[in-house]
């Protein structure tokens, strides 16, 4: 019977091959399977330049690094000084490693990882001199490169942002935790299992490639553990309307009385609505229903080629405005409240500006969650939207009629490689393990396509030309302006958002013409929003100071609150939702088509 690997305490016996013959057989099997994987990869879109592909990003990173190196070389004295300091640090680390290998256990580390850096959580990263050497060398080199880049002259704002992004990609990729011979957990597993982990890992990679679309989808969770409608998106309700681009869901009340003014939730069309309705304990939709609101949610279609020409104004008219009309007919109310998340909020804001310009008073209030309406500070996503990339992307969408969801998912993952890429490479392909079941990551991998016309308009008009913020956007023959939106607005930014940066959300809030309650939540684009009160994981900040200051000034005067922002929002929305009325059953007036969550959300990309 095979012995388990020794405890990671620096004991070299944990790194001993138990059966050399089996080890050799497994290595040969791994190499054989690796050849098939490589052959398949070379035939895939991943290996070829194209919008948001891995190959294109490698090319762009190479260009950026060469440009930065040229700037460094233009000041040889400064570069020589920096290199001398780096080599001096290497010498200290090497000397410390030698002392430890000779038995000196009192050597203090020259550098240590930041708190919470899970890449180096295994004890042998510190207790084994070999792995400690690789760890400290990497940390020193990455810090040296970041500092040298920060002091580099001759880069404009966009060039510096691009350089910081690509350096972050390279630094994340070069971590010793990503390589089989410099990761103690992988080495121990390889020796103790006689390399069976590498065989399993290559099989995992092969299966990921088989199930992927255009680009490789690295499994982030156990996809068999979840099913929409079974253990995700289970809040009771009915589909009360549908057309080509959306189903409208009305949720069953859980209180005998509800607020008079119903709530329409407009989620992003670039992913699926059930991020707001994961498990019952994490469901924002269930929470809103339990607070006594009549909740309607748009579930966008997963479009195919037949919907290629559905554009942004179609999503406004056939989506938001049609949903608003159906809700008013179903409930008998003249006005509704709106809530938009991410690009769903951008669509809702554009719709509100359109209605205001036309003098149509349909919405009583609006809530924006991590929503950008001004894109001057839109973060790293701006790096993927220049004329050349847009032209290439539009050519691809014109050929297919849509953008494959894997490309946008790839972009979002690359923005946080240390968290969303490399841990799964190590777990799946080096350790040969299956990923842990996690509902949020299941949703993250359940990507959706985007119609060509709509996505083209969104990227060019909002991100590239920022026309909504400038008051230059024309929708259905109507020029719209954000300052015409004078209804009360609850505007949520999240502190660590890498998709809709808090600064960008804050700038957009200042463009609205009515009273704005700006709130800043802890964490990022997803966890900062999906933050149920029972978890008490993150905090939020509020302030009575106006939003005509900078975000830093606003934060300096803000009050920090422990826990979720959901109850605070409930109090705000209640003030704008009228009196209590008897609870409404879904489809009581217009009828029901099918049970929530409906069929549109179940269509896989």
The assigned structural class equals alpha/beta
Strand order of the largest sheet: 15-14-13-12-7-6-4-5-2-1-17
Indicate the CATH architecture of the largest domain: 3-Layer(aba) Sandwich
Count, helices: 21
Distance between the termini: 45 Å
Q: Write down the overall geometry.
A: globular
Main location: cytoplasm
Pfam family, one: PhaC_N
Organism: Candidatus Filomicrobium marinum
Domain Poly-beta-hydroxybutyrate polymerase N-terminal: 117-288
Characterize the structure shown:
This protein has 605 residues and is an alpha/beta fold. It is 44% helix and 11% strand. α10 crosses α17. The longest helix has 26 residues, at 76-101. It is globular. The protein starts with 19 loop residues before the first helix and ends in a 10-residue tail after the last strand. Its main location: cytoplasm. It is found in: Cytoplasm. This is Poly-beta-hydroxybutyrate polymerase. It is an enzyme of class 2 (transferase).
